[in-house]
Amino acid sequence: MLPYYEDYEPGTGRRAPRAAFTSDAGRLSLNGHWLFRLSEAVAEAPLDFLHDDTPRGDGWSELPVPSHWVLHGHGIPRYTNTAYPFPVDPPHAPTRNPTGDHRLEFELPGTWRRDASVLRFEGVDSCFRAWLNGRELGTSKGSRLPAEFDAGPALRPGRNVLAVRVHRWSSGSYLEDQDMWWLPGIFRDVTLLERPAGCVDDLFVHAGYDHTTGRGTLRVDTGAAAALLSVPELGITDRPAGETAVIDRVEPWSAETPRLYEGRLSTPHEHIALRVGFRTVAVREGRLTVNGRPLLLRGVNRHEHDPDHGRVLDPETMRRDVLLMKRHNINAVRTSHYPPHPAFLDLCDELGLWVVDECDIETHGFIHADWRGNPADDPRWEPMMLDRMRRMVERDKNHPSVVIWSLGNESHHGRNFGALAEWTRERDPSRPLHYERDRTYRHSDFYSLMYAPVAEVERIGRHEEDAPQETADDPALEARRRALPFLLCEYAHAMGNGPGSLAAYQRAFEQSPRCAGGFVWEWIDHGFRRRTADGRAYFAYGGGFGDRPHGGNFCIDGLVFPDRTPSPGLLELKKAIEPVAVTAELGRGLLRVANRYDLRDLSHLRFTWSLEDEGVCVADGELKVPCVAAGEEAVIPAPRPLLPEAPRGELWLTVRAELAADEPWAGAGHEVAWAQFPVPHPQSAAAARGPVVAPRPSDDGITLGEGEFDARTGLLRSLGPLRLDGPALDVWRAPTDNDRGMGPASAAKDWRRAGLDRMDHRTVSVRQGPDRLEVETRVAPAGHERALRTRYVWTAAGPGLRLVVHVVPEGPWDGLTLPRIGVLLALPAAYEDVRWFGKGPGEAYPDSQEAARVGLFTATVAGLQTPYVVPQENGHRAAVRWAELTDPATGGGLRVEGAPHFGLTARRWTSQDLEAARHPTDLVPRDRVFVHLDLAHQGLGSASCGPGPLPEHRLEPAETTFELRFRTLAPPAARR
Questions:
Q1: How confident is residue 975, by pLDDT bands cut at 50, 70 and 90?
Q2: Mean pLDDT, to the nearest integer, of 746-758?
Q3: What is the sign of the dihedral through the CA atoms of 385, 387, 392 and 398?
Q4: CA–CA dist 481, 465 (Å, integer)
C-alpha cells in the first residue's frame, strides 16, 4: 500500500470544496510564527510534535507562516522549466523527500462556537497531513488550492495545538511541473472559521445581464432554507436567496467598468457580504462575447512571485500587480498555471480585469519520456485531476472577473481532461472552457496555440490555417475547430530585452473578428534577491543556489523585473494595446479618433495636444472629442496653432488621451494613449559649407580641421582638446536572450559560427585628398573569407568633422544577419551627461519602438542602461538626430549629428564585458565611455521561446552608406 503522499488520492478527511467568502462569524487567523523542523527524509521525521508537550531537542526553530522554508535557510529553492527535479517514477516520490514539521499553539477565544468549526488552508506545497490536539484531521494534495477540515470535534477551550507535516515531493508533484520555482511550505493563509448552526455552507451567485433590454437577473443558490438576500441599491430586501430576482435596469460589470453591487446574505446567526457583478459570457458565431459585445483580450500570463518571499504575496503586492496592469492598458490575466490567491480575484472584480482561471495541473516533464505514463491519460489519476478542477471552480465561481475556466496547461492530451470538461460544463455552463495542448480541441471552446508567428495568426484570422494532424481526418471535429474563436494563450516571450513585434501581433488580432486576443508570456521575472559579499543586490535564477538540474534564467521572462519595476517591454505593450487610436491627415486639417475599447465609450477621457519645436513646447491646448462609442470612430478638426516663424528644427504635434477624473486604478491626468505627427513647415536653407580644408601631415599623424588621425590606421585620435578612440565599424552586440534563442533557433549561434564576435580590422590604405581623408579597411572574422569592406571618408565641416561610412559585404553572407551595423568610439569616463533629440525617453529597437516618442531628453550614461537581470544588449536610443555627451564638471563635450538619424548607445563597459556578465553586479565600469553610433540593429523578436524578428526587422548584410558629423562643445564659460 502506498503512503498517502505517494498514492492517487487527492486527500483524506477533507470537507467538500466550496466558494470562498467572508462573513461576520468568527474568523481566527493562524498566520504567525510557528515552530518548524526539517527532516531530509520521511523516515527520519518522528511524529513527536502532535500533542501538548512543547517539542524539545535539536532541529526546531521559528518559521513564519505563510512562507517557504527554503527561503528561510532550510534547504534551497529549485527552478526547472520542464524537467522534473526528481526521477520520473510516478506516483513515487524520492526516498530523500524533505519533510517539514510545523507546530502552532493558539488560544481559542472564550466566545467561540466550536462545534462546526472549520480549519482552512489556502495553499500548501505539495502534500500535507494535519493534526489538531493530537487528533488527525486528514491529508491533502493540490498546492495552489484550498483544503478544509472539520475541526470542531478536536477543538477545545483555551490552548490548542495544531501540527502539520508537509512533504516537498508527492504524487501531486507530477501534476505541478509549471515552469517555476519548486517552493515547499505552508505558503498561503491558515484560518480557523466559526460555522454557526444553520449557516450557509456554500453559495453560488448567478447574476446575468441581457444586453438587449438592460435587464439583470439574480439568484443565489445556498441550500440553506433560511437564507435571505438583500441588495439595497436594487431594492432587494430579505428575499429568499434561491428565488430569481429580475431587475429592469442594472449597470453591467465589465473589466472596463467594473460595476459591483454590495449585497448581503443573512441567516439567523450569520451575515455574508456579497459583491455582485451582472454580466453574461458567451461564445456566439465564433466570437467570445460579454454582455453582447465581442471581447479582445489584451492579456498577460501571471505567476505569483515575490523576490524575497516566493509565492507568499501580501494584499499590497497583489494590488500593485493589478494597478500596474490597468495603468499599462492590460485588460486580462491568465492565472498561469494555477489558481491565484483568492484576494487577487477580489481585486480583479474591484478594479476590472478579465480572468482566465487556470487549474493547478501541468505534467510537462513527461515530454522527456515521450509522454509515457502521462497522468492525463491514466484513469488512476482522474480523481486527483478532477478534484483540482472542482476545488478551483467551487472556490472562484462567484467572481464576475472570471470569464473562462482553463483545464490546465501543457499536459498533452488524455481521457481525464474529458472528465474535467464534462463536470465543469454541468456545474457551471455560464463560462466557456479553455485547453490548448489537446489539438483536437474537443474539450475546449477555443482554438488555442502558443507562440504562433504573426503570419500564422493572420492566416488563422482568415480561416486559412492548415488543419492540425489530430483533426485532419475527422471532418466533424475539424469543422468544430474552425468555428471556434482563436486565443493565443501565450505569445511574445518577454525574456530579457524584448519582446519584439508586439504592435504587429496586436494589428493581427484587431484585423480578424475570429481572434479573441492573447496573453503575453509573462508578467514578472522570477528572480530571488541576493547580495554579493560586499552587499550589492542582484537577482538569482536557476542554478544560483546550487540547484541541479535547473532551467537557468528561463524564469527571467517577465514584463516587470522581480521587484516589479516595469521593463521597456511593458511600456511597449502599453503602447501596442492602447484602447484609443489617433491618426492624422494634417494636410486636410483632420484627426481621426478610434475607440478600441470593447464596451466603454470615450467620455471618461480628456484629449490634449502640444506642439514642440526641436523638443521644446511652443503651443498646447485641449481637443473637443465627442463621446465615441466602443468600436466606433470620429473625425475632428486638428489643432491649428500658429507655427514659429523660424523653427529651430523639427515640429511635432503630440495628441494625448488621459483620464479626465480619478479612477480607482489611476488618478486624473494618467495617460492612456498618445500619438505623434510631424508637422510640415518651410525648411531653412542649408548653411553654406566653409572653405575647403585639406588634410596635412603632423608630427605623428594626420591633421584635418580639428581632427588628429593616426597615420598608419587612419583612426581618429582626438577632436580639438578631446582625446578619443575610433570611430570604427562595429557589428557585434552582447546577445539578448532572444538572440540566444531556444535550441537551433539561435541567431547568436549563427553569428558566432560566422565569427561576428571576433571581427578583425585591417587597414588597407590611408589616402589624403585635396579636401578629404579616405581610410579603406577590411573587417573580417578569423577563419572565414567573408568580410565587410569599409571606407571612411572624413572631411572638415565648419567647426567639426563629417564622416561618411561606406560598407560593402564581400564573400558568402547568404542566410546570415548582422547584430548591428554602426561605429564604435570611446570617450573619457567624465563624459557622463547625455542630451539628445530623437526617440525616447527609453530604449528602442526596430521591432520594439512604438513606446518611444520624438523629443528632447536628458540622462546620465548610467541612466541610459536597462538593468536586465541577465546583462545583455540594452539602452539603445533610436532615430537620434543629434546627441551631446558632456563632462558635468566643465560642461565641455562632444556633439554628434546624424544625416538624418542614428542610434545611440553609451555605457561604461564594452559589449564583451556585457556578454560575459551573469548579473549586473559583475559589470565593472571602465575608465572610458563606449559610444555606439548605429545605422541599424537586428530586431529583437521573441525566439527565446517563439519566432525571431519579422523579415522586415532582420538586418541582412547589404551595401550601405551612412553619415555622421562630430564637433566639440566648449565649456559654457568659453562660449560666452
A1: low
A2: 96
A3: positive
A4: 11
Question: From residue 703, how far is each of 397, 710, 813, 967 by CA, in Å?
Answer: 78, 9, 37, 15
CB 719 within 8 A of CB 966: yes
CB 384 within 8 A of CB 174: no
- Among 409, 386, 406, smallest CA distance to 396 is for 406
- Cα distances from 950 to residues 510, 737, 820, 878, 953, in angstroms, run 18, 17, 16, 18, 5
Counting every residue, how long is the chain? 976
Mapped onto helix, strand or coil, the DSSP state of residue 683 is coil
Q: Please report where in the chains the cell 577563419 appears, as a residue.
A: 783
What average pLDDT does range 593-598 have in this prediction? 98
CA dist 340 and 301 (Å) reads 12
Report residue 119 as a C-alpha cell. Answer: 480549519
Angstrom distance (rounded) from CA 645 to CA 293: 50
Phi then psi for residue 56, to 5 deg, are -125, 165
Which pairs with CB-CB distance under 8 Å and at least 24 residues apart come from 371-377? 371/412, 373/88, 373/90, 374/411, 374/412, 374/414, 375/90, 375/174, 375/175, 375/411, 375/414, 375/416, 376/411, 376/412, 376/413, 376/414, 376/415, 376/416, 376/417, 377/412, 377/413, 377/414, 377/415, 377/416
Lowest mean pLDDT among 688-692, 847-851, 962-966: 688-692
- 424-476 pLDDT, tens per residue? 999 999 999 999 999 999 999 999 999 999 999 999 999 999 999 999 999 99
Of the candidates 102, 189, 142, 116, the residue with the CA atom closest to the CA atom of residue 5: 142
Query: Which residue's C-alpha cell is 519533510?
Result: 99
User: CA-to-CA distance for 970 and 894, rounded, in angstroms?
Assistant: 9
* Residue percentage of the chain with pLDDT more than 90: 94
Q: In which element (H, E) is residue 738 found?
A: helix 737-740
Which of 917, 560, 573 lies closest to 735, judged by CA?
917
The C-alpha angle 146, 524, 458, rounded to 5 degrees, equals 105
Catalytic residue flag (residue 410): yes
Which is catalytic among the residues 490, 612, 850, 873?
Answer: 490
Residue pair 885/930 in contact (Cβ under 8 Å)? The answer is no
Select which of 6, 148, 394, 410 is catalytic. 410
Alpha helices in 550-604 (DSSP H): 568-576
- The rounded distance, in Å, linking the Cα atoms of 134 and 873 is 59
For cell 529553492, what's the residue? 77
> Which three-class secondary structure state does DSSP give residue 286?
coil
- Which residue type does 358 have? E
Hunting for cell 474552425 — which residue is that?
Answer: 482
Of residues 214, 224, 218, the one with CA closest to residue 206: 218
Q: Distance of alpha carbon 446 from its chain centroid, rounded?
A: 23
pTM summary value:
0.97
**Peptide bond before residue 972 is cis, with ω within 30 degrees of 0:** no
Sequence-ordered list of residues with C-beta below 8 angstroms from that of 932, at least 6 positions apart, any chain: 730, 820, 822, 823, 824, 876, 903, 904, 905, 906
Nearest to 397 by CA among 446, 431, 420: 431
The 10 Å Cβ neighbour count of residue 292 is: 14
At 345, which amino acid appears?
L
Is there a catalytic annotation at residue 490? yes
pLDDT tens digits along 237-261: 999 999 999 999 999 999 999 999 9
Q: What number is the average pLDDT over the span 477-506?
A: 98
* Gap between the Cα atoms of 580 and 592, Å rounded: 10
Peptide bond into 173 cis (omega under 30): no
